[in-house]
Amino acid sequence: MRNEAFVLLGFAFLGACGQDDQDGFLNAPTAQGVTSTNGLATVNGLATVNGLVATNGLATVNGLATVNGLATVNGLATVNGLMTSTAGRATVEYLVKCALGSGDYIDKQDNVGAWHRFYGALGVGTAWKAGACDLDCQQRITSCMLAHINSTGNRVPIFVNADPVKMPSIGMSMAFQSGSDAIVQEGVFFGNILASNPPTAYYVKGDGFKASIAGRLGASTSTPYKAWDGYRADTGTYSNGVADGLCMGKTMSDGEHYDYASCGKADFAGDVFHTYWPNVISTYVNSNYNGLTTQNFAPITFTFNAEAVRNVTNSKADVWTTSSNFEFKNTVGLYSTGRLAIANVAGGRRLCANGYNEHIVITKNSGERFSLSSLKVGFLNSTSSITVRGYSKGSSVVRSVSLPVTSQAGSTLTTNWDGLLKVEIKASQGTCIDDVIVKS
Q1: Cα(33)–Cα(165) distance, integer angstroms
Q2: pLDDT-derived band at 35, boundaries 50, 70, 90
């Protein structure tokens, strides 16, 4: 079990595990790797200093060596490099926070003899304290460092997730369980800034990420990482900097939700993996990270009548964005093929599931809490079914209501759930939503 650590930092992921492979297929989940109540607070405030944007990386000119332990003078020099400046010691602070676990630390002297203590937190390279940091260690620490970089130096709360087999001190789970507001997947980070020359630093954007956070993904040319694109080896499809197209998922313990455990690409359609990164870290942010919101809890009914009749492609795409700041998103991957449609029914319109196991996520774009009062559901065949789940901050309890269908008649699911971060609707083929009543 991980220790809780609330250092000068903001939110982090936890989790469960499943086996992934380099072909990109999602296998069955295994037992949960960590509890759902632990969490690690982290914020991205590491500025791009001391070689992170240079062509030589961190290891060559900053008194840093991956073949020796951080605690040794041959691993982290005292008379030159990072330890000789305030900005350099800030980089060391993040290196140690990424490498060592909570409760661990190193003491180092600077070039004038003053001592500094640096504390661990995420623990993705613990062997580097006293020994060498091998290739996997270098990649894990790189992913962690890149996830925390903000070229403006601002500190933005994030929630981080990683493969619990490779990085059990971080793990993988859903943010709300540890009390985080960070439910929007920002991106996935990977590369090697410690030993490669030139350093490699990449990101791919997460599901539905639209924000432009200063100093982060694509918002600043001074960031050391760049968008990654290429062909997905198992499908031959081209993806331009999007995680769902280039990264391989791993299931969580509920068998439905997943996050990314590795990323890989081919050079052309139908090719095999030519570039593969097995040590990646995902970040999540609060969609209202940079402002405050208010709520009046006025009831709002969405009937879908304003949307044109059309099908939705097999991608993580917005289905319907409302003028009331709510967003209905189709989520694909592990548990959905992405086949949703707006259908004409009895003079009105419905949002219908066209595939076996579709998934719709309802969130409020500003990150506010909201209430779900009820859903009016219609069914096109006798085998249809629907499950509605509500997620709240700081609770591992998921409110859920299911409705198997025995007739084609419509039904109203009354929930009256308050304080929701998001709602997930899991529907089988032939299930349609006529009306959704929320309060905001």
Answers
A1: 8
A2: very low
DSSP state of 95: H
Contact residues for 73 (Cβ-Cβ < 8 A; gap 6+): none
The pLDDT of 328-356, averaged and rounded, is: 68
Query: What pLDDT score was predicted for residue 305?
Result: 55
β-pairing, 156-162 with 40-44? antiparallel
Mean residue pLDDT of the chain comes to 74
DSSP string, 286-307: -TTTTS-------EEEE-STTS
Task: Tell me the pairing of strands 247-251 and 105-109.
Answer: unpaired
Q: Please tell me the distance from the alpha carbon of residue 97 to that of residue 120, in angstroms, as a whole number.
A: 4
Report the interhelical angle of 135-148 vs 86-99 (nearest 10°).
120
> At 72, is the secondary structure helix, strand, or coil?
coil
| Bridging pattern class, strands 40-44 and 105-109 | unpaired
- Whether this model's pTM surpasses 0.85: no
Q: Which two tokens stand for residue 132?
A: 């060498």
Alpha helix stretches (DSSP H) within 85-179: 86-99, 135-148
Q: Is 127 left (phi over 0), alpha (psi -120 to 50) or beta?
A: alpha
The residue assigned the tokens 């069914």 is: 379
- Give yes or no for residue 48 having a pLDDT over 60: no
Per-residue pLDDT at 142: 92
**Which residues, in sequence order, are CB contacts of 113 under 8 Å at separation 6+?**
none
Contacts of 346 by beta carbon, 8 Å cutoff, 6+ apart: none
% the chain with pLDDT above 90? 15
Average the pLDDT over 417-424 and give the result: 86
- Per-residue exposure over 255-266, b if at least 16 CB sit within 10 Å of its own CB, e if not: ebbbbbbbbbbb
Q: Is the pLDDT of residue 366 over 80?
A: no
**How many whole angstroms separate alpha carbon 267 and alpha carbon 271?**
7
Contact between 362 and 425 under an 8 Å Cβ cutoff? The reply is yes
User: What is the Cα–Cα distance from 29 to 22, expressed in whole angstroms?
Assistant: 16
Amino acid occupying residue 430: G
Strand partners, 200: 192
What Å distances lie between residue 128 and 6, 71, 347, CA to CA?
A: 23, 8, 66
- Distance from CA of residue 202 to its chain's centroid? 15
191 or 78, which is more confident: 191
- Residue 406's SS3 state is coil
